[in-house]
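=== RUN LOG ===
request id: a7f3
mode: sequence -> structure
chains: 1
length: 281
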Amino acid sequence: MRPQLETVHFPTASPSFKYFIYRNDELKTYWHHHPEIEISYVKKGKGLRYVGDTIQSFEEGELLLLGENLPHDSISANEGSDDYKEVIVFQFPKETLQLFPECKPLLLFCEAAQHGFAYNNPSPVLIQKIETFGQLKPLHQLIELLEILILMNADTDRQTLSSISFAQNPMHGKFQNKTALVTQYILNHLDKPLTLNQIASFSGMSPNAFCRWFKKSNRSSFITYLNTARVERACQYLVETDWKISEIAYKTGFENISHFNRVFKTIKKKSPGQYRKSVAY
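=== RESULT ===
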């Protein structure tokens, strides 16, 4: 499965940007990229997020800024359930900002987002502007979009996501397609044992060649990437279910509970039981 190039269609009434809300089963869950800058705000929902070469959990209140052609995907917790999900999305080409010299600081800001930004504690004013955006007329929406970008630019309490710059990578197409193909295979097999020989065979390389290629492509080893994805999936189960920890270990591809506990504590700095207690409401 190659990362799909998403074509963003802009309505004629509002050609400078696109604004929409995904709800429940309308949420897209596929590895894709597009040249448009994207702002997304999770008003409702939880799950796993993939941006570039990072794998992290997301939850209600998350705010992201994704630069051009940065591959991303998200998988909601309890996929297929009736749990309500809602994500507010803005997409716009950087040419919208290039039209106005006064917008150069915002243009530079969006170009700096080529690795993706996640905001740790966005201000209530910023969130209100996002949530009430749909109530405005098109001209006022354009002005409000600039205001949103200004506030996001001023907010330095943000985390850089991907370690890889896809926008400037000279091997962008070939690199991205091959990496996404292998990554998607790994993510599709988190619930079962996955050996190095198996993934190397799938990729058409020897185990040693695959390890070298994967480390170069993803800035982490295959085992580290696989364990990180499994632990993040386990975190979902610890929060969203009352399953026993041993059951969660097997459901996330670990062959024994001791290995699961050891890997989980290495990544999360606490045991699965401690993690479950720390997030209990």
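=== NOTES ===
The radius of gyration is 20 Å.
The chain has a mean pLDDT of 85.
=== END ===
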